[in-house]
Give the backbone structure.
Amino acid sequence: MTAKELAPDIAIPEEVADNVFITSLNTIYNWSRRNSIWPMVFGLACCAIEMICAASSRYDLSRFGMEVFRATPRQSDLMIVSGTVTKKMVPTIVRLYNQMPEPRYVLSMGACANGGGPFKEGYNVVDGIDKFIPVDVYVPGCPPTPQALIHGLISLQEKIDQQSITNVPWYSKDDPGEFLPIPVLGPDLIDMRQLDIIRAEAKAAEKEDAALAESAE
Ligand code: SF4
């Protein structure tokens, strides 16, 4: 909106009136951030093929400033979790997420990343990446089409538009950013955030077993 439309009572010389814009710091920050999201080169399974298609010239992600896929988490703004998340991969995914600088975003692409998908009951599959890292946008489908992924990316842009530099964590002095505990790989993947709960449950189970054994004697 031009200054003339927004503030008709401010005297602005006629020759520059259409060139003056009134905006806010938030709008400028968000505008620049939303139009330069660099995704990480990162694919897990079949959904990754659709993500690669979305990056092709046919769909032209340059329109959104997102065509620069980076091969390192340190230069990436967005992690697209595209594919089946196995227990073996989760520690690596969380480690990569921790290596991304703020501001960072996560898009969960497809049924597998969202909730395990067709392999949900598999012994080695995690039922949703959001159990381990915070997800900003979920894209449903098996696999989602490139158009669906682009819709998810536009939804992320809309989310960024709502952010305010007064409350985003990466400008806060108190909160230096979240460092997520890396899960321990094993037959039963352990989420380190739930370690206290797991310990308490194990102790309770032990006590229950001991009480049962005593009553049986
Ligand atoms: S959601 Fe479907 S297409 Fe995507 S990784 Fe899982 S099985 Fe493959």
In short: The mean pLDDT is 86. The pocket of iron/sulfur cluster is lined by residues 45-47, 83-84, 110-112, 117-118, 142-143 (CB under 6 Å).
